[in-house]
From TrEMBL:
Protein's name according to its UniProt entry: PTS cellobiose transporter subunit IIB
Signal sequence coordinates: 1-18
InterPro entries: PTS_EIIB-like_sf, PTS_EIIB_2/3, PTS_EIIB_3, PTS_sugar-specific_EIIB
Pfam families with a match to the protein in the record: PTS_IIB
Amino acid sequence: MKKALIICAAGMSSSMMAKKTTDYFKEQHKDIEMDAITATEGEDAIRAGDFDLYLVSPQTSMYLDGFQKIGQEVGKPVVSIPFNAYIPIPMGIEKMAKLVEESI
């Protein structure tokens, strides 16, 4: 099973996106799970390396460069989520799923 983690400002919208995208993957019979945490936990989470992919939400893009450097140190991809893949509607969920599959 592959795992992806969304790093967000407060974790509310990212938790919803993580759940909806995980549900989408299950419907598609794909073995990918998603979770979410706050940006203050991001550095430690990436260093721990427990996920296959780390996604930085649009509202926390100011941390992207730093998180990507840590990701390089531990050999894990860290990517930015575009705004159109961060909308909890079917189109946004599909875009998020595509981003995860392309990046993982």
